[in-house]
């Protein structure tokens, strides 16, 4: 009997509560693992061996259980960091005249040190590439007629050139995901190294996949347009709706240990594309106008391109007491935050889907969202949409809904009556059916 292999590499590599792409892989995995199907097995990719290996579901389940505590796994400090910390501690005790001379020497030495560090890193990359080219490919795990499904962070943890060669030599089928083409379409909103690899990554997806599951019509259009533009073969594409429910205990839990008083909730990694900046500026605008400034709760780990913003959030006396930053929030706490929020906001510049908008409505909460990309697909007529760049509009509408809880309640009654959340079981079924259609 042909086997459906579900890849759990991302789950096994992750060390925090699952969010975004990681949540998708985790939620689909849990349902496939619980299905009891004898034709469904699990695998992981090993970059050093350049091959796939079977992975018992207990390994991924244990990883998810460990990560659900919300505690970040801290790596042991490196020797360099320990030495640097010791040197900094010593400098704090150094007399000022001596410190100034050391500081001047350090500044003169920094360019040389940076160049040396750069050369070391480049040498390490070259050596790593040589080792990988010489490393033997692991014995094939798959057989002709099997189907491999991968829904994770493949651009980080996989080598699609290896997958392509295995597929070509053995004859199994492949289902891959397209979440978004943001690094291709908006390279300025991503880290340079991410923007540099994504065009090649999606070209590899086009060559390697038999079916590509897209999480919105927007991402499907983007993917198909990109593949046609570069002249790669276009695999079959399909839509998969992401689940919008959280697996949490039904009992209501308070949020006093996280935030006190009324608050507006924004769930997202803190990075440039998510556009926390417009909310910060909106609060400043309200402060300047002498209007009440609501409390904003940002839930998400810090990402790329927000160092200056984070400094502003912590130091700006006009709003620093009004912005609460929460990182590594457990699912039960996140569900409680949704339930207790006055309403939610999502000003992202571009999304492949926009899971927090759907999660907000699944918890019966009204959302103010930007009007870009896939977001109108998520919220339909139940969400109010704003230009993501319009600071005045965000300030005005947040202030309006804070001052008019009756209007928020009206919007939420409509959500409860008309919004139908997608259960993760449905997402997993769509993925399974896409694989079954390729079996044989």
Would you spell out the secondary-structure blueprint of this structure?
Blueprint: E1 4-7, H1 9-13, H2 20-34, E2 40-46, E3 51-54, H3 57-67, H4 79-92, H5 96-134, E4 147-150, H6 154-157, H7 160-170, E5 173-178, H8 182-185, H9 192-208, E6 211-214, H10 217-230, E7 236-239, E8 264-267, H11 276-288, E9 296-299, H12 307-315, E10 323-326, H13 331-340, E11 343-346, H14 355-362, E12 367-370, H15 375-379, E13 384-386, H16 391-403, H17 405-418, H18 424-436
Parallel strand pairs: 1-2, 1-4, 4-5, 5-6, 6-7, 8-9, 8-11, 9-10, 11-12, 12-13
Antiparallel strand pairs: 2-3
Helix pairs in contact: 2-18, 7-9, 11-16
Model description:
By secondary structure, this protein is an alpha/beta fold. It has 3 domains: 4-72 and 136-243 and 425-436, Rossmann fold (3-Layer(aba) Sandwich), CATH 3.40.50.2000; 94-128; 264-421, Glycogen Phosphorylase B (Rossmann fold, 3-Layer(aba) Sandwich). The chain contains 18 helices and 13 strands. The chain has a 7-stranded mixed beta sheet, sandwiched between helices. A 6-stranded parallel beta sheet has the order 10-9-8-11-12-13, sandwiched between helices. Helix 10 (217-230) links the parallel strand 6 (211-214) and strand 7 (236-239). Helix 11 (276-288) packs across helix 16 (391-403). The longest helix has 39 residues, at 96-134. The radius of gyration is 24 Å and the shape is globular.
């Amino acid at each position: 009997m042909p086997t459906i292999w579900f890849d759990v590499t991302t789950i096994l590599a992750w060390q925090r509560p699952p969010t975004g792409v990681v949540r998708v892989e985790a939620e689909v995995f849990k349902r496939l693992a619980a299905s009891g199907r004898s034709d469904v097995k699990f695998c992981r990719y090993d970059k050093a061996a350049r091959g796939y290996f079977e992975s018992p579901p207990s390994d991924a389940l244990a990883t998810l259980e460990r990560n659900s505590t919300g505690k970040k796994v801290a790596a042991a400090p490196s020797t360099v960091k320990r030495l640097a910390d010791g040197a900094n501690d010593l400098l704090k005790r150094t007399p000022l005249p001596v410190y100034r001379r050391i500081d001047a020497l350090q500044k003169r030495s920094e360019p040389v040190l940076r160049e040396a560090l750069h050369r070391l890193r480049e040498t390490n990359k070259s050596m790593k590439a040589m080792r990988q080219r010489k490393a033997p490919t692991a014995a094939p795990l798959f057989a002709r007629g099997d189907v491999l499904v991968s829904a994770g962070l493949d651009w980080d943890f996989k080598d699609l050139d290896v997958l392509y060669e295995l597929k070509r030599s053995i004859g199994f089928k492949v289902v891959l995901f397209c979440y978004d083409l943001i690094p291709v379409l908006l390279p300025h909103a991503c880290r340079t190294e991410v923007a540099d690899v994504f065009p090649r990554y999606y070209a590899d997806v086009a060559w390697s996949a038999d079916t590509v599951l897209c999480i919105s019509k927007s991402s499907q259009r983007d993917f198909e347009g990109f593949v046609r533009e570069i002249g790669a073969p276009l695999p079959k594409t399909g839509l998969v709706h992401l689940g919008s429910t959280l697996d949490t205990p039904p009992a209501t839990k308070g949020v006093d240990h996280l935030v006190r008083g009324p608050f507006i909730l924004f769930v997202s990694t803190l990075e440039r594309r998510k556009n926390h900046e417009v909310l910060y500026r909106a609060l400043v605008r309200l402060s300047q106008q002498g209007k009440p400034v609501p409390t904003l709760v940002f839930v998400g780990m810090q990402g790329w391109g927000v160092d200056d913003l984070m400094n502003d959030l912590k130091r700006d006396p006009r709003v620093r007491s009004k912005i609460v930053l929460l990182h590594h929030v457990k699912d039960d706490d996140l569900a409680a935050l949704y339930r207790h929020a006055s309403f939610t906001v999502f000003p992202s510049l571009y999304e492949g889907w926009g899971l927090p908008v759907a999660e907000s409505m699944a918890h019966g909460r009204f959302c103010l969202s930007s009007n870009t990309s896939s977001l109108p697909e998520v919220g339909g007529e139940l969400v109010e949409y704003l230009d993501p760049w319009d600071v005045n509009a965000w300030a005005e509408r947040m202030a309006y809904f804070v001052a008019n809880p009756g209007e928020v309640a009206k919007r939420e009654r409509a959500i409860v009556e008309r919004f139908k959340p997608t259960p993760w079981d449905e997402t997993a079924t769509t993925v399974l059916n896409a694989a079954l259609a390729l079996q044989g």
